[in-house]
Amino acid sequence: MTRLSAVAIVEPPDCAALQKVFMSNPASRLAVVICSAGRPDCLADLVPFLDNQSRPADRVIFSVPGPEHIGFDPAPRFGHGTRAEVIHPPKGLPRQRNAGLDALAGDADIVVFFDDDFLPSRHALAGIELAFAARGDVGGMTGHLIADGINGPGFDHTEAAEMVARWDSDHPEPTEGRVLRRNLAGLYGCNMAYRVSSIGDARFDEALPLYGWQEDIDFAARISGARIKTDAFAGVHRGAKSGRETAGQRLGYSQIANTWYLWRKGTMTARFALRLATRNMAANHLRMLRPEPWIDRRARAIGNWRALFDVARGRADPGRILTL
What we know:
Elements: H1 15-23, E1 30-35, H2 40-51, E2 59-63, E3 83-87, H3 93-104, E4 110-115, E5 118-120, H4 124-134, E6 138-148, H5 157-170, E7 179-182, E8 191-195, H6 196-199, H7 215-220, E9 226-237, H8 248-265, H9 270-286, H10 297-312
Parallel strand pairs: 1-2, 1-4, 2-3, 6-9
Antiparallel strand pairs: 4-8, 5-9, 6-8, 7-9
């Protein structure tokens, strides 16, 4: 999953204007979808942050491959009228996200996707609702990351919770926030929200198996409406390493094959795909001699080269990781 660049910064309107915009729009039905596999501890840590929202979710759907992947019944842990449920689709992030969308069955105006290791600020859902109410042209948005542990060793729960608490202390009221970037190529999958009417029949591409590397970019490129980054909502992406990389060759293969596939599909520009693939391949090779303890750089590099050979022979396919 990749954070993306784009354009301008726009200041929010004054509070009176914000109140007028919010009050002129009927209450939204807001659902949160959490996909997870093999990390019940992360889900247990996340639940209090979802239940403590100043604007409670109407529905929270936990999409996991089987009961052992969550290990508890979330329904009794939510108050405020939130309906919490668990569904069991086949394993694979695109499949699990799609199952969450299908489970909504039109019973939502806004759908929010949080990773299982993302801790949202207290006003995250309220800010999302305000931001959509104020900007009718926006179909999807990603929020402000207080911190992101994905490219480092990650943050434990205590560290992440403390950072969120400091943010909430400094931001005691929900607002529609600012548009930090507009015309994004995609949204960051750990914290993204969509207007359901902008999704329509679009679904995550299940040809991208397992963790579905770049599935968030592909999906966001196919919705209607503007795609923005905003500080209307915030949180910490812990970057938990458990359950994330069990076969470095698979991820290395995906780093090349998935970008190739999405470029040919038309949801990723050639320039962006080339930059993304070469950046990851260079990192794998340059850091191979002194790799990070949590990354198998050598295996990723091997996967990169296997994908390149397949591209050259016209045989590159994201699904080949299932046989590596």
